[in-house]
Amino acid sequence: MPSPSPSRPSPSRRAVLATGTALGGALLAAGTAVPARAAAPATQRPAAPASTTVHSPADSWRTVLDDADLLWRKPPKTWYEGPYLGNGRLGSGIYAEPGATTRAVRFNVQHSEVQDHRPEFGSLFGLARLPIGHFTLEPVGAITGVEWWMRLRTAQLEGTVTTTAGTLELRAFVHSTSDLLTVEVTPSAGERGFRWIFHPAEAISPRAAFKPLPDGYTGNPPAVTEQHGDTTAAVQPLLAGGQHVTAWRERTRGSRRTLYVTVAHSHPAATARDRALRTVRTASALPYGPLAAPHRAWWDRFYRKSFLSLPDARLQRFYWIQLYKTASAARKDAPVMATSGPWLEPTPWPNTWWNLNVQLEYWLIHGSNHLELDAVTRALSEFRDQLSREVAAPYRADSAGIPRTTDTHLVNGASVTDGGYGVGVPGQDPPTPEVGNLTWALHNVWLSYRHTMDESILRDTLFPLLRKAVNYYLHFLTPGPDGRLHLPATFSPEYGVNAPDCNYDLMLLRWGCRTLLDSARLLGVHDPLTARWQEVLARLAPYPVDANGFMIGAGVPFAQSHRHYSHLLAVYPLYELTGATADERALIERSLAHWVGFEGALQGYTFTGAASMSALLGKGEDALAYLGQLMSRFIQANTMYKESGPVIETPLSAAQSLHDMVCQSWGGTIRVFPALPAAWRDLTVHDFRTQGAFLLSAVREKGRTRWVRLTSEAGAPCVVRHGIDGPVEIRDRHGRPLDHEETADGTVRVRLRKGDSALITARGDRPDLTVRPVTPNEPAPRWGLPG
């Protein structure tokens, strides 16, 4: 089948930015518009406006969060089984000490800013994250059992360790706003002699256990333990200068003993010791309770920004755990999440990965209304100069790119064997010409713009960086005999073969040029490259396809099992192709089936991508089935995930797949409950953030949508496919009818100014507008090790 022609307006690109013209096109594409309908005559209105206030009692959050708590009734033996705590920087995973499972409990201490600083050995050795160490809680007696709860609502671990000598009651948290791990232990009489021991880790790249060391590379010298009054410090010097320091102090108050731990990192100065000592001394002046109070308040505010309840108990718990996990692993001002977040276990991937991991890690922050965690936009803006240094010297003046792997400052370092992967140059190899990663990362920035309509994101970060990312492609586009513009061979992550007209790059380039043109119009920018971007859209080579669907590139069919959907980005997440025509839908269905049909190399995020693509097509049953395969085959007891080492993106992207089933807002239209399986007859969503900067609340009862409310934060045009059967009425926050336009397929356009809201119900219906958890269809075991 021929590829969709790039010269025609893409039916999926109904609206890119909130301009009246684009959204008008969206309405026409969605269905035949009917004339604007005036408000109902006064005789049809209720005698007095009915309330449109949505009630969201605190008990709703308490119910779903308490239900989602993880439970352990047997000791976890690995990272993939145990509890975890974090704040985007400091992280701790808790499980039985390997090799001494009945004698000690391990509390890992890791930090997302702790890394080496030897770029000559590449990002995965010389700039790698460095392990710090762990504490062991060593009881007097042998451990015979545990009962632990990871309490999501308060973001703390609490429970009991039972031993042959007695019990240890414990509770622990990593402070939400300070790099502080606090563990309080209340021992029984027989366990008063328990002890804490710190075990420094060797400060060497974790990749050393998986790949040969580069010539000349060695680990850093051992840590030195120092005593500073009541506080102990393990000082880790670095060969490149600087240090990281773990400091701790234990205090006894009555029968309770409290351990206070912090980590600090500095380079090139050796200032970490002083900072770490100050943190511990200040914190240890407070008992556990007062210290935890602001921490608990932070988490309460975090959770109440959005709400989701669905009748699948296992998935609902999984979803809320992912929100907990994300806020434990991310902060706007923290490093962009590495492959395992702030935690660090043995891994061949001890840094940040930009050819899929980062993008998937942060998708869920948009719909769940947690833009305060958006480190991607911040980091790309802060380190933008480095992005130009990462492309080959002849292109640095006007281009930018991001390597497959970087450190916290987006530096890749030297090209050494197995030490990292640079941007590369189209048509050349080595290095591998993987050139589209910055453009894809900027799609995340575009999502942050679209979900907030914050023009400063568009003006200050997205437009200037996307201009440089697209410029890099423009250096290599050449006309072919067919009159089309073609790319030389580039690399489609992670297929393993270079291909000309690689779909990964064609899809990103087309999205990039469209977005630059739309952004320039919105910003009022008269850019000299406008004509070139328009030419690219008109003449760019079509996406290579064959009888099985999308190929990797020209002459390279999709012919082997492949976990990555790099060749399908135009479908998801770019939504450049959405199945708006029968041929386009058939192409997507054929490509999806062919991709997942090769079983050998499929991994967890294969199934999250397949679930979201199925949701795009409105196939809720298929989406749920793909998530079911993910849960049964890949997700671990504590909802973590591994591929040779811990990688955090897959469970987080599964939460986004749930979002895609519940709400989609691409192309200027908000779609409410677009891909729900039949079993989900009841569902509640509240303050779900959509493109256009709307907050969506909606309730489904007994298989039908009862009400939809949208609140505008930016005054953008509001187009919504509400899913309510039959005629509807739309009222403002005071219960008064709102003017709106209807289309034949159940889409309405509502005029909302900034701060306005609209409630959509079936005509004459006055449903209860209370946000409540729904009843699960059947019971399900808790996550953790409950039995």
UniProtKB/TrEMBL annotation:
Residues 664-756 form the Alpha fucosidase A-like C-terminal domain. InterPro entries: 6-hairpin_glycosidase_sf (IPR008928), 6hp_glycosidase-like_sf (IPR012341), AFCA-like_C (IPR049053), GH95_cat (IPR054363), TAT_signal (IPR006311). It comes from the Bacteria. Residues 1-38 form the signal peptide. Residues 324-642 form the Glycosyl hydrolase family 95 catalytic domain. The keyword Signal applies. This is Glycoside hydrolase family 95-like protein. It comes from Streptomyces pulveraceus.
